[in-house]
Design goal:
There is one protein chain. By secondary structure, the protein is of the alpha+beta class. The chain has four helices and 22 strands. The protein folds into four domains: 2-56; 66-77 and 302-376, conserved putative lor/sdh protein from methanococcus maripaludis s2 fold; 83-92 and 219-300, Beta Barrel (Elongation Factor Tu (Ef-tu), domain 3); 97-218, Beta Barrel (OB fold (Dihydrolipoamide Acetyltransferase, E2P)). It has helices at residues 2-18, 28-59, 127-155, 161-186, and strands at 66-68, 70-72, 75-89, 93-96, 102-107, 114-115, 120-124, 189-191, 196-201, 208-209, 216-219, 224-231, 243-248, 253-262, 272-279, 291-307, 312-313, 319-326, 331-344, 347-352, 359-361, 374-376. The longest helix is centred in the N-terminal third of the chain and has 32 residues, at 28-59.
Length: 378
Amino acid sequence: MKNTILLITLVLILFSCNTKTEAPKSNLEKLQADQLKIQTTVDSLQVELKNIEKAIKQLDTVKKLQKVTFFTTKDTLFKHYITLQGMVASDQNVILRPEMAGTIQRIFVKEGQRVSRGQTLVQINADVLNDKVVELKTQLSLATTTFQRQERLWNQKIGSEMQYLGAKTQKEALENSLKSLHTQIAKMKIKAPFTGVIDAIIPKVGELIGPQTSVIRLINLNNVYIEAEVPETYLSVVKKGTEVLVDFPSINKQLIARINKIGNYINPDNRSFKIRIAIPNKKNLIKPNLLADLKINDFKATGVVLPSNLIQMNQKAEKFVYTVLNDSAKTTVVKRILEVGQEYNNQVIILKGVEAQEQIVLDGSKFVKDGDEVEITQ
């Protein structure tokens, strides 16, 4: 086209030079004659130009082809993840409080100390109760002796039944009172409900404490888990046993875990359900309330996976790539219309259009079109 425009321009220049000396004529016949003369010249030149181009093409054996690279497709496991944030928690992370009010008499442990289940941690002053126990034991001793004598007399049919029953009731009442006192004395001790580590001791010896007073925080870091809330739209794909990629950015630790519990309640405030992910914590680096970035695997499949930036789109919104077609004479590219699946991390799984072991144009794919002959480079 450019050559044709150039020829027409040259013809017009030549014609104008030849007619400069003639008197200007404006009649229609003259203009039409000039037009026919120019058109005849142009047609003649175009035929000559085509013949020259054909001859050049036959003689020029060096072709300027678009250089491209390619890679061979293969079946790959594709995984898609949803990203959420969770928080570390532990069922064995408690604040211990006394059941009975009193003054702290002794603290048997220190912060950071590991303790066993049932171990006494704090002793509350129980002197008043111990004095009552001594008093009750004296009364119980007398009541027991009285009852035994009344029982012997009653067995011998001596004395009234009321005397026997009165002595028996008195003895049993004192026994129950003594038992109740021992229960109260036991509650004057704070014991470890499970094996763990003393994280904090809040009051000091001599302070008055009651059932509402926080005394000791006890933590077991061996059994920790992550809690997170998942939007209800993922209820059908997030199941017990689903793989989760866990990242703790604060401690630069990553691990792979699985969901071990799915909540059965949808929170109406944010339309989400809770999940729990058990995690190992052998070195006790993971602490309660530590934030965790979660990637939950909601889809996986095996197939051809392509980089998303390699897939192009035409005016019909069809997605496509170019494949390499080799034959004995030349190498060309072929446009392949694709049906794509999910995308994750700049990778797309292909549902239709490309199979495994096909050669996909990589570099140079933006500069070719369907059927172009190309040159393969490394």
